[in-house]
Write a structure and sequence with these properties.
Elements: H1 2-9, H2 15-37, H3 45-81, H4 96-101, H5 109-121
Length: 122
């Protein structure tokens, strides 16, 4: 089982450090986004309109960063719990190739594909 192997061998080498580094990067990005959004708006109405438009883009980037940060944090928690590498839906191994490509995957490819198909139908 991958979850057990991760705990025993630290598989794959450096993955925890990679996730911790990603967590730090995302946290720093969110800090910069918060500073950007909190800047006072320009007094000129045209300039203010442009700044508000820019803030919408920055806010969307912040939402993406928050979502990714949550996934990274969840993966680190699964590592600590010894369940990293196990699908949260079916409890089967996620698979090495998938984890190497997407280190914070929480579903095996089969469950992820089913979820994607379900979302498309909505």
């Amino acid at each position: 089982m991958i979850g057990d192997r991760y705990m025993q061998d630290g598989w794959p080498a450096g993955l925890r450090d990679q996730l911790l580094q990603k967590k730090d990067e995302l946290s720093s990005r969110l800090d910069r986004i918060h500073l950007n959004v909190r800047r006072p708006l320009h007094a000129d109405s045209k300039e203010r309109a442009k700044e508000l438009e820019d803030q919408e883009v920055v806010d969307a980037l912040g939402n993406e960063a928050r979502e990714e940060l949550a996934k990274v944090s969840d993966a680190l928690e699964r590592m600590d719990a010894g369940t990293y590498g196990l699908c949260t839906e079916c409890n089967n191994d996620i698979g090495e190739k998938r984890l190497l490509a997407y280190p914070y995957a929480d579903e095996c490819i089969d469950c992820a594909t089913l979820e994607e198909e379900r979302r498309r139908r909505l």
